[in-house]
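Support reply, case 0932

Customer input (verbatim):
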Amino acid sequence: MFDHEVMRSGAEDLAGLAERVRPVTLTREQRLPVLPALDVVVPGGGLRRGSTVAVTGADGVGGATSLALALVAAASQAGSWVAAVGLPSLGLVAAEELGVALEHLVLVAAPERGAWGGVAAALVDGFDCLVVPAGRAVRPGDARRLVARARERGAVLVQLGGGWPERADVELAITRSRWEGIEAGHGHLRARKVRVEGGGRGEAARPRRIDLWLPAAGGAVEVARPARPVTPVPAPAATPDGPPPTPSHTAGRRRDRPLRAVS
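Our regenerated output:
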């Protein structure tokens, strides 16, 4: 009985928050803006309301969380509200450096599997963008209802990781990632160069590829010059890049500080 009372109280709190932010999030624009560096990989130059975006990384390749934050950065700057659900290690310092307006970002603790439906409904009703963890953390039925409700309410659902029961409208994958700044086993991590490959359904079906600094030396997101135009993606090939540096090689790194999620 106590658990049910706590779950109901949490859902009511989220519903109240959704009601407070509703005037901003119910604007009727068809697309939410994205950072200029992401124009190439996001169809139409913006996040279409009601769509789903899957952000993944190849095995051993980091940067998916940073890319998900970068996707919603411009929308938050324009006044849209963003909820990040079930991401307790999300670093607010890194999020701000990537361009996220922290005053429009809400962190929500991961709901119990049985509470996902009510929590998701409250969030979709009040937020323009939701960043949610891999689909395996959500029951398939709840995942389908969340996608359907986001489509109905005009929210953008950013799925961080794979495992969702339905294919996303836009699919973005980081296939290469390399940090710069460490030489001869010492130094400071200054910038990360990643390769992002895009696909999806409908307007996103044509393959796309771009190299980005995520983040750049100054913390923002920039196109790695020379920019790669929209081109068909060839068959996967072995890459010279290894996995991201191990913790022992990241001395002096100052971004991606963990923060406890708030309920």
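We compared this against your earlier run and they match. Two observations from our side: The mean pLDDT is 79. The chain has five helices and eleven strands. Please reopen the case if you see a mismatch on your end.
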